[in-house]
Amino acid sequence: MTMARETIPMFSVGVQFSKIPDADTLNAELKDEIARIRGAVPNSLPEGWSCHVYTTIRSDLNLFERPVFKKLGGLIMTEAAAFASSYGLDFERYPLRINECWVNVYGQGDAQDVHLHRNSVISGIYYVAAPPNCGELLFHSPMSEVMLDPPITHGNIFNVLIRNVVPSTGTMVLFRSWLRHSVKPTKGKEERISVAFNLTM
Ligand SMILES: [Fe+2]
């Protein structure tokens, strides 16, 4: 006699990957602008962070005053709307808006601790430069802190605790702000440059 048996996934965490078309021109302009910013704006790395990275987070800088970031802002809004649709978010009645946007530049050995983005609905990262051997982005399962971690025979969707993402130049990654993530150390000598942002409704 065959027993009818099925294990059904009950919840799911979606992450959107958008390959921006013709990103080379945009990235060249962003790189120039970010070089100018680095020359003028000191690293605002918060004291509580134990990692190293050049960042403009929580500085007074309004990146969208700069035309190239305005262009990127348009792409962020388009992609965020698509992602919000996947999650069934009612952004027609409660419009999405970018409430934070900052630059991160990782040199050799630079990394970022596990964190999430509070007071936001959607967060994202756009890779301006993701050279070979730059730090991978890790997503940490929301279950990783509440479940026992017994030995496993094989990995699958029910027991995976960390998902690795190899950054790709010209790609925008969007995720819910509660999803914890981190950045592994960059091994190569070339800089890894990203623009991070938060949206609220
Ligand atoms: Fe982050």
Question: Would you kindly provide a written description of the structure presented here, covering whatever features stand out?
Answer:
- This protein has a 6-stranded antiparallel beta sheet with strand order 1-8-5-10-3-2. The protein has a 4-stranded antiparallel beta sheet with strand order 4-9-6-7, with no helix packed on it.
- The longest helix is centred in the middle third of the chain and has 20 residues, at 67-86.
- Helices cover 19% and strands 27% of the residues.
- With 201 residues, the protein is α+β, with helices and mostly antiparallel strands.
- The protein has helices at 23-40, 67-86; strands spanning 16-19, 54-55, 97-106, 112-115, 122-129, 137-140, 162-165, 171-176, 181-183, 192-200.
- The chain has one domain (16-144, 158-200): Sandwich (Jelly Rolls), CATH 2.60.120.
- The structure holds fe (ii) ion (FE2).
- Fe (ii) ion is lined by residues 115, 117, 181, 196.
Write the layout of secondary structure elements.
Elements: E1 16-19, H1 23-40, E2 54-55, H2 67-86, E3 97-106, E4 112-115, E5 122-129, E6 137-140, E7 162-165, E8 171-176, E9 181-183, E10 192-200
Antiparallel strand pairs: 1-8, 2-3, 3-10, 4-9, 5-8, 5-10, 6-7, 6-9
Helix pairs in contact: 1-2
The structure holds fe (ii) ion (FE2).
